[in-house]
Amino acid sequence: MRAYVAEGIPIITHESHKKYYEEQIFKTPHTLNPDRLQKSKRPARFETFTTKKVLTDGNKVIEIHHMPGNGHNAGLSLVYLPKEKVLIEADAYNPAAQANAPVVMPVSPYTENLVETIARLKLDVDTIVPIHLPADNRRVTRAELMRMAAR
Q1: How far is CA 106 from CA 89, 114, 149, 150, in A?
Q2: What is the mean pLDDT of residues 130-144?
Q3: What are the chain's domains?
């Protein structure tokens, strides 16, 4: 992210993360091995949101939604591609390596929060892209999420 800031690219994040990025990530000196941001000294630019941010080029739409009530992180958010019916998330649902893995009980409260968020926002999701493994880049379906959430 420091390289993006050095190029003048704005950081899109939930408003609760701005101070952390500003004060901890982008202002921390990198003097032993200076990176592009250390050399440019460019201040970070932010585009923050509280509940939803929509990005579009007139054809493609990307929605970023805050996930209130998630105990992992106060600003945890998901990305939704409505045309493709794809949801991209991290830390809310970490599917098993195999789609037919047994349901683990109790269900993670983070997974419960994701299921509730999808329902509350009425997102039409076919595919879930988890950022973290062990799903190993396989197609994760909404049906699998619902099974793992014991629904």
Answers
A1: 21, 15, 9, 9
A2: 83
A3: 1-49 (no CATH), 51-151 (3.60.15.10)
- How wide is the angle at C-alpha 25 spanned by C-alphas 22 and 27, nearest 5°? 65
> Tens digit of pLDDT for each residue in 34-51?
999 999 999 999 999 999
Q: Which stretches does DSSP call E strand in the chain? A: 11-14, 46-49, 52-56, 61-66, 77-81, 86-89, 127-130, 140-141
Q: How far is CA 33 from CA 1, 29, 44, in A?
A: 16, 10, 20
Q: Mean per-residue pLDDT for 80-106? A: 92
From the number of C-beta atoms within 10 Å of its C-beta (0-12, 13-18, 19+), residue 140 rates as buried
Mean pLDDT, the chain, whole residue set: 93
